[in-house]
Write a structure and sequence with these properties.
about 400 residues; ten-stranded mixed beta sheet; Lyase, Ornithine Decarboxylase, Chain A, domain 1; 2 domains; TIM Barrel
Length: about 400
C-alpha cells in the first residue's frame, strides 16, 4: 500500500448484520448472500467465509467468473449464478457445483438438447414485470418445466423472481407478486426445494410469503437500508402523507413496514490523505478548466484520489472530513487527484475521510445523483482493502 488511499472493511459489522437478519427473519430456510460486484465493493477473499460463518448458506453471483472466484474461496457452499451462462460452459458449472439460472425458452431448449453427463442444478427465473430476465409466458414455462423434470441429469432445485420496486405504498410491487403467482399457478411450488422472491428491501418491508423459503440478502448484509425516510412535520410533508394514504386506500396497496426492526452497521469506509497544501489568492483557480476560482485568499488541500478510484466528477462540491471537521471539494475531479478547500488547522498528510464517520455514503450518493450500490461498486479495485476484526487489522488486500 504505497499511497495512503484505502478502503477499510469492518468484518465484525458484516457478521453482525448477517446474524441480526437471520435471527430476526428466522422463518426462512435459505439465506442467499449476494456477493456479486466484488461483494458490493468490499472484496471477496476476506469476506465470503465470514458471511458463511455468520449464517449465509447459499451464495449468489452475477457471472461464471464471479462464481469461480467464490468457489476458490469456499469449496462447499452452493453458488447460484443469477445471470445466464453459455451452454458450452455447463461442464465447468457441474465440476464446480455452480447452480445455473434458466431464464428463457430458447436457452432451455438448447440446454435440453445438449449432452450433460453429470448432475446439473438449475433455478428457473420468472419475469414478474421487470422485463429483464425470466419466463414471461405461462405456456412456455409449463412446457420447459415438464421437459426438465424428465431429464435425469438436471435437478430443478429452485424458482425465483426479482421485483423492480421497493414495495412501499407501491401497487407495482403487488402486481409483480400476482404476476409471479399467475405464471407459476400450473406448477406445484411445493415440488421445488427453494422458492425465493425477496431481496433486502422486500423481506424487510413485507411479511413472509407462505410459499417462499429463501431470501436474497444484498445491500442489507453490507449495512444499508434503502427505504426512503418520510418527514411528516410541516404542512407540505403532512399533505404528502395524506396523499400517500389516499393512494394506498384507493389502489388497495398491501401493508408494508417502513421502519427497520433490526440494527444494521455499515462496514465500508474510505480514506486518503493530504499530499500538498496550496495558498490561493483571490481570483486564482484550481484544477482543470479553471472551474473554481477563489473568492478570497484561500487554502486548498490536494488529495491523491480521483475518478479512476471511484470519486465521480460529480463529486465536486461534496464534503469530506479531516480531523472530524467537514470540508468541501472544489475544482474539477481529475483521474487521480482532487482538491478540497481547507483551513490552517489542516496539515500535510492529515487523514481524509471520503466515506465513513461524518460522511455517510447515502449523502455521497445523493450528491452524485446515484445510488449507494453504484458508489460502492465503482470504488476502484486498484485501491487496497484493509480488513478489521476485533479492532485489529487482520489482512490487507492490495489493489489489482
Amino acid at each position: 500500500m504505497y499511497r495512503k488511499t484505502y478502503v477499510e472493511v469492518n468484518i465484525d459489522n458484516l457478521k453482525s448484520n448477517v446474524k441480526n437478519i437471520t435471527n430476526y427473519y428466522n422463518n426462512y430456510k435459505y439465506y442467499f448472500g449476494v456477493v456479486k460486484g466484488n461483494c458490493y465493493g468490499h472484496g471477496t477473499t476476506y469476506v465470503i467465509n465470514e458471511l458463511i460463518e455468520s449464517g449465509i448458506n447459499y451464495l449468489a453471483v452475477s457471472s461464471l467468473e464471479e462464481a469461480l472466484e467464490a468457489r476458490r474461496i469456499n469449496k462447499s457452499i452452493p453458488i447460484l449464478c443469477l445471470e445466464p451462462i453459455r451452454i458450452e460452459y455447463m461442464e465447468i458449472c457441474i465440476k464446480n457445483n455452480i447452480t445455473i439460472t434458466i431464464h428463457d425458452y430458447n436457452y432451455a431448449k438448447e440446454l435440453l438438447q445438449s449432452k450433460i453427463d453429470n448432475k446439473l442444478k438449475i433455478h428457473l427465473k420468472i419475469d414478474s414485470g421487470m422485463n429483464r430476465l425470466g419466463f414471461k409466458l405461462k405456456s412456455e414455462l409449463n412446457e420447459i418445466y415438464s421437459e426438465l423434470k424428465e431429464k435425469e441429469n438436471i435437478e430443478i432445485e429452485g424458482i425465483f423472481s426479482h421485483f423492480a420496486t421497493l414495495g412501499i405504498n407501491d401497487k407495482e410491487w403487488d402486481n409483480q407478486l400476482e404476476k409471479f403467482k399467475e405464471i407459476t399457478n400450473d406448477i406445484n411450488l411445493k415440488e421445488i426445494p427453494i422458492v425465493h422472491l425477496y431481496k433486502s428491501a422486500a423481506f424487510i418491508n413485507h411479511p413472509k410469503i407462505d410459499f417462499c423459503n429463501g431470501i436474497r440478502i444484498g445491500i442489507a448484509m453490507y449495512g444499508y437500508y434503502s427505504n426512503p425516510v418520510y418527514n411528516n412535520s410541516g404542512l407540505k410533508n403532512k399533505l404528502r402523507a395524506i396523499k400517500r394514504a389516499f393512494y394506498k386506500r384507493k389502489n388497495k396497496v398491501s401493508e408494508t413496514n417502513t421502519k427497520l426492526p433490526i440494527e444494521l452497521k455499515p462496514a465500508f469506509k474510505m480514506y486518503t490523505e493530504i499530499i500538498q497544501i496550496k495558498k490561493l489568492e483571490k481570483s486564482e483557480f484550481v484544477g482543470y478548466g479553471a472551474i473554481y476560482r477563489a473568492k478570497e485568499n484561500e487554502i486548498i488541500g490536494i488529495m491523491p484520489v480521483g475518478y479512476d478510484d471511484g470519486i465521480f466528477r460529480k463529486s465536486r462540491g461534496r464534503y469530506v472530513a479531516i480531523n472530524n471537521k467537514r470540508y468541501q471539494l472544489v475544482g474539477d475531479i481529475g483521474m487521480g487527484m482532487c482538491s478540497v478547500k481547507i483551513d490552517n488547522t489542516v496539515k500535510m498528510y492529515d487523514k481524509v475521510t471520503l466515506i465513513g464517520d461524518n460522511i455517510p455514503i447515502k449523502e455521497v450518493a445523493i450528491h452524485n445523483e446515484t445510488s449507494i450500490y453504484e458508489i460502492l461498486c465503482n470504488i476502484g479495485k486498484n485501491i487496497p482493502r484493509v480488513y478489521i476484526k476485533n479492532n485489529e487489522v487482520i489482512a490487507i488486500e492490495e489493489g489489482k
